[in-house]
Amino acid sequence: MSTRPRRRTSTRRRRVVRTVLTTLVALALVAAGLGGVVVWQNSYDLREETVTVRHGGRTLHGVLALPEEGEGPFPLVVFVHGDGPVDATHDGFYRPMWESFARVGYASLSWSKPGVAGAPGDWLDQTMEDRAREAVDAIAWARQRPDVDADRIGLWGASQAGWVLPGIAARDGRIRFAVAVSPAVNWHRQGRYHLLAELRRDGASDAEVAAALRRRETVLELLERGAGHAEYVRAVGDPQGMTAARWRFVSRNHTADATAGLPALRGIPVLLVLAGHDVNVDTAETESAYRRLLPAPHLRVAHYPDATHALLRHEVETDPLRLTLTALCAPRSLFAAGFLSDQRRFLADVDTYG
């Protein structure tokens, strides 16, 4: 039997093997390069210190992010989270801001919500007043540190923190400034706005909108008379993620309204940050309330037409693959143009305001 066909077959196999190996090597080099980019892009010019805050009978698991150089004392930004089970770094989301603030000499302090990332307690057991007292305790702890400037401590808060920031300022008359990012004003009106905005976004029919509003009215009636979770489930059917713990949290907090507390921020520089694609918060109502209750020159308002509620770029947040790749390879680019630099300028100029 002739061996020529076998030689041709063997040659083809070697070529295939060489091609596969070359491809694998190329992919490995690309992966290594991308890995290097990911590591580089997720490295920040910061010194992060894991801290345990014990004050006022509370134990908080936090992170103190300091500028890369210097011993201080540094002015401090205290982070107040929005809704949900948020850890101290917000899954890394805060780090680009910490780095940006550090570039103008500011440290940042944040802590995991109770029950998150091993922290004691349960954030769903908290009221907005509880959260304000918790922050006041953390600030008192920070003032004892030699690397913190006790007279230059301010607040940064997002979304649900709109109900917490005024309470902190009311309890601590030494708060130096506040940055309010997409803050809510009234729990009930914010909830209605959010519901309708999501229905419009999803193309709901008139009948679907009407049904959702009827369901909402039933929920409000249950909250007003203090109904338990079992009655809630009987009344609305599918709880749609409203667990018993979440129902208790909502029952404790649904009357929250920032208008009575906002005057506590008068007389200090306040940066109000609003997004053009916010389906969670009625930014027009928020801006109106802040302008009415916090008159110039201390209030400054920054609009980001291309931003979502989280101040991410709209075209990035609405594309899951692009969002993942940007978070991995260019996390500083997640945010709307100007968001990081505008906050940095605000902090650099705090001492010159009004």
Give the biggest sheet: 8 strands, mixed
Number of helices: 12
Helix content: 40-55%
- Spatial order of the strands in the main sheet? 1-2-4-3-5-6-7-8
SSE order, one letter for each helix or strand: HEEEHEHEHEHHHHEHEHHH
Question: CATH topology of the largest domain, which one?
Answer: Rossmann fold
Gross CATH architecture of the largest domain:
3-Layer(aba) Sandwich
Sheet-strand content, in percent, reads 15-25%
Low-pLDDT segments: 1-14
Broad CATH class of the largest domain = Alpha Beta
How much is the average pLDDT? 90
Tally of individual domains: 3
Shape annotation: globular
Describe the structure in your own words.
With 354 residues, the protein is α/β, with parallel strands linked by helices. It has helices at 4-41, 95-102, 128-143, 165-171, 187-201, 206-224, 229-236, 244-253, 283-293, 314-317, 320-329, 339-348; strands at residues 46-55, 58-67, 74-80, 107-111, 148-158, 178-181, 270-277, 299-308. Strand 7, helix 9 and strand 8 (299-308) form a beta-alpha-beta unit. It is globular. Mean pLDDT is 90; it is low at 1-14.
Give a brief description:
This protein is 44% helix and 18% strand. The protein is α/β, with parallel strands linked by helices. Strands 1-2-4-3-5-6-7-8 form an eight-stranded mixed sheet, with helices on both faces.
